[in-house]
Amino acid sequence: MDKYSVLKQYFGHGAFRPGQEQLVDGVLAGRDVLGVMPTGGGKSLCYQVPALLLPGTALVVSPLISLMQDQVAALRGAGVAAAFLNSSLTSEQFIDTCREIRRGAYRLIYVAPERLENEYFASMAQGLEISLVAVDEAHCVSQWGQDFRPSYLKIAEFIGKLPKRPPVAAFTATATARVREDIAQLLGLRDPVSVVTGFDRANLFFEVRRPKQKLPAVSALVQERRGKSGIIYCATRAKVEQVCAALIEEGVSATRYHAGLSEEERTGNQNDFQFDRCPVMVATNAFGMGIDKSNVSFVIHYNMPKNLESYYQEAGRAGRDGEAAECILLYSAGDVVTAKMLLERSNEREKGFDTLEQDLRLLDAMVGYCKTTNCLRGYLLDYFGQGHGERCENCGNCRSLYVELNITRQAQMILSCIKRVKDLLGYYVGPALIIQVLRGSKNQRIRELGLERLSTYGILPEAREKVQSYIECLEAGGYVYVEKEHSTLRPTREAGQVLFHGQEVMMMARAQCEVPSAPPTRERKRLETSVQVLDGEQSGLLDRLKAARNKLAQEENVPAYIVFSNATLADMAAKSPRSLEAFLEVSGVGRVKASKYGKYFLDVIEEYYGDRGR
Ligand code: ADP
User: Secondary structure of 581-603 in the HEC alphabet?
Assistant: First the structure.
């Protein structure tokens, strides 16, 4: 069998994705490799295909139990003999698995890095024919990465003790050069074939929003996406609790994950999410690495993360199946304060070495993302050092029209209104009252205070939100400030420049977002090459296929995407195969899965078209 037949027969894919083939070829030629690909890029295949072609057993070092279990379940589903060794096994299962490993029964075995330090395991490994050592999430070896795991530093030593050094294949989604260098050096890679693929994830829609109140905003976003699976990341455990409780109150099937919960509850909640019993997960960044759920269709950040690496990795958990998905960040100025506080704390206590200055620089870049009015995808790709077009047409900024408005006249009206109200009353008032005066409100308080007599009364009869946004712009520009104790709006010295010295005030305004809050539309889907566009009839079939798949997954007690991913079902709906042969043409359908599930899904298709008389 060659690599193409392995790809087709076991994994059901007709072609390698960019970068995959080079890495597969590297390993097959006995070379070390380093693959840097974004989450969802398809790193697993790069070692799984060689593992099926080379004699012996591939050893896969993977940092998380849930990740191993998922990978092994998926491989077994595809007809590949694979196993994991970790603490979730009973001692009986452990002994059985070791016996089978010694017998050379598996093509791949998954272990946590700590296992390599175990003497029993190390001596067993020395008696095996090891085809390759794959190191998943290889950035864990670097202290510059976010998930440093000391036992990764021992991997090189373990490999050094093997009687014959197999090729070593390292994979990560972390792009920075420093981390890459660390990986090559600390894992002891020898002249590796390095492949860094594009970081763009065309199927992801990026957006930054600045809601006045986040809780109602997040709940509206989730309600609009009912029936879809999503993750909501919050900066603190307390926020996770608050957001999760609010969503549950509104009838959303949400669950939560953070380091303050017992191990048992964390595992239970994670399973509820993986199996779609609770499609919405509210979590801190403790939830993540190793989440291999491919049908996550939105990731909302309730708070801004501490750097763009974290953001891209967390947001990238959306749309791993290649379907259109959304990454929405809810930004407020308070997030910067929280992020700084968390960084200071972690530098003091957790890391044991000081990188605060560097951390703050990374934070600045993150804040820049939240504030830019240019293409958001472009901003991310710039950061990761990849070229791109000027506009992606698939982010919140490209889809909104930003215009630069000269609001000097309005600014002068607002500033003089603040001054006149103060002159008349002898004290400053809050922004709400100033807005009422400017808009010529007829309410009782205005009359009682005699404010309708002012020359600035009613001179700015625009929508309340608009006047509010002018005031925010003046605040951002340092012309006014809100005094803390009484929440009154006051001018700064700079205000004089605008009132008396011709200083102009400009405001970037989002003129109109074409898709203000809509989930991905058909039109948007068409922008992405990897996404199927289905007609009405095919969409109806897709719904039936999904229902059938979910039922099957429930019966087999596996997560739905282990049976077939959404992308595979979409391709199935588009191709509507009517024979087993045609069924094999569907992307993601390998031989074993076809023989296992083919008839079941073909019946669903047959019945669907039968109902339509075709
Ligand atoms: P990563 O580990 O890089 O995050 P995965 O290995 O989990 O990504 O792959 C992500 C998804 O891409 C999976 O659903 C997988 O089936 C799909 N995939 C990988 N390689 C290919 C390919 N060559 N053709 C089509 N789909 C692929």
Answer: HHHCCCCCCCHHHHHHHHHHHHH
Which helix or strand (DSSP H or E) is residue 476 part of?
Answer: helix 464-476
Q: Report how far ligand 1's centroid is from the alpha carbon of 153 (Å).
A: 27
Q: Output the pLDDT for position 516.
A: 37
Note the pLDDT of residue 566. Answer: 85
Three-class DSSP category at 91: helix
166 φ, ψ (degrees, to nearest 5): -80, 165
CB neighbour burial string for 494-507, b if at least 16 within 10 angstroms, e if fewer: ebeebbeeebebeb
Q: How close is the Cα of 381 to the center of ligand 1, in Å?
A: 21
Atom of ligand 1 minimally distant from the CA of 39: 4
Q: Where are the beta strands (DSSP E) in 440-592?
A: 480-483, 488-491, 506-513
Q: Residue 205's beta-bridge partner residues? A: 326
The CB of 44 under 6 Å from ligand 1? The reply is yes
Residue nearest to atom 23 of ligand 1 (CA): 16
* Residue that is written with structure tokens 């690495």 in the block: 289
Q: Is there an atom of ligand 1 within 6 Å of 396 CB?
A: no
Task: Name the packing angle between helices 3-11 and 591-611 (round to 10°).
Answer: 50
Distance 322 CA to ligand 1 centre (A): 9
For residue 145, the model assigns a pLDDT of 63
CB distance 320 to ligand 1 below 6 Å: yes
The predicted pLDDT at position 405 comes to 83
State how far the Cα of 449 lies from the Cα of 452, in Å rounded to an integer: 8
Tell me if the pTM is above 0.70: no
CA of 154 to the centre of ligand 1 (A): 28
Which residue positions in the chain have pLDDT lower than 70?
145-146, 175, 289-292, 348-354, 401-402, 510-533
The reported pLDDT for the residue numbered 146 is 64
